[in-house]
Amino acid sequence: MFGLSLGSINVFLISAATKTTLTTTTRSCFSSKIHPVSVTVRKKRSKNSVLSQIEGQKFATHEIEGFAYNKGAKELAQHSESPAYWKKVLEGIRKMSCSADETADGREFDKEADTLDPKERRFSVLASSLLSSQTKEHVTDGATQRLRQNGLLTADAIDKVDEETIKKLIYPVGFYTRKASNLKKIANICLVKYGGDIPSTIEELLLLPGVGPKIAHLVMILGWNNVQGICVDTHVHRICNRLGWVSRSDTKQKTLTPEETRVTLQQWLPREEWAPINPLLVGFGRTTCTPLRPHCGECAISRFCPSAFKVTPSTSSKSKKSILKKKL
DNA sequence: GTCCAGAGGA
DNA sequence: TCCTCCGGAC
């Protein structure tokens, strides 16, 4: 159960949040190498040099690493004001998730994951993260199981097996043809460049085919227990905008992309919430705060939500087109 | 038929 | 910025 891995993440988070100095205990909580990063962010995402989209935004090294241990760190980590009641909102969503009897994470990663060799565990995290995107949970689980049963959850094995076999085994995950091809390429890169392990930084993960910001951050958290940033998918993006938790700089307009949401959200959301917020909002977004016709009537936090009961169904470009067609 | 959901290519 | 990739739920 992913809960196990989440457990270890929680341990890390608590220690990171409460330590005031960098101790060996804290350091040992990271299974990964720590890469101090100072990133200048660009407006347009390019595969080679990227982290995010807000121009001029810089992260202090200690912030990126996950430590708020020196004097200036707190101010830096909190340079944007938190929206009112955000704690109550998260608490309310947590309660709803529990009563709906959902898994807190919304994702099941490898029951046997803890018995695996760390390198193999990380590769399987990367593989299942890739499969899970744009795919229902049970479908991902089935595909991952089949890969495992065939011994295909290591870089070495994937590199050797032919693409057609992978394709058949992972069917019917979303975009299985492309994913099979990407998986082969990724396995080869992991083998050649990383000795069968996976990359340990966001930048290097982003160089892998089929890995964008969403999966890169997810893999850093689940694979390396290293919270570099929030894993923002379409649910986190939508819900944060509905709640008014993020907006374009100096305006009240919604953020335009998940990447913009991620950077904006990271400016005020305390670090210990970065890892758990994705599974929490994904569950909430699938059941209650749905993209089309959200169930505000049964939502326990609607009183905190500026969009409650007035979310107009977002008109997609496709439906806009068909509306236009009908008019013509 | 429409929408979902991230990444990549035009 | 839009389109494409996929099966499947609705």
TrEMBL record:
GO terms for molecular function: 4 iron, 4 sulfur cluster binding; class I DNA-(apurinic or apyrimidinic site) endonuclease activity; DNA binding; metal ion binding; oxidized pyrimidine nucleobase lesion DNA N-glycosylase activity. It catalyses: 2'-deoxyribonucleotide-(2'-deoxyribose 5'-phosphate)-2'-deoxyribonucleotide-DNA = a 3'-end 2'-deoxyribonucleotide-(2,3-dehydro-2,3-deoxyribose 5'-phosphate)-DNA + a 5'-end 5'-phospho-2'-deoxyribonucleoside-DNA + H(+). It holds the Pfam family HhH-GPD. It is found in: Plastid, Chloroplast stroma, Chloroplast nucleoid. CDD domains: ENDO3c (cd00056). Its EC number is 3.2.2.-, 4.2.99.18. Belongs to the Nth/MutY family. This is Endonuclease III homolog. It comes from Crotalaria pallida (Smooth rattlebox). The lineage of its organism: Eukaryota, Viridiplantae, Streptophyta, Embryophyta, Tracheophyta.
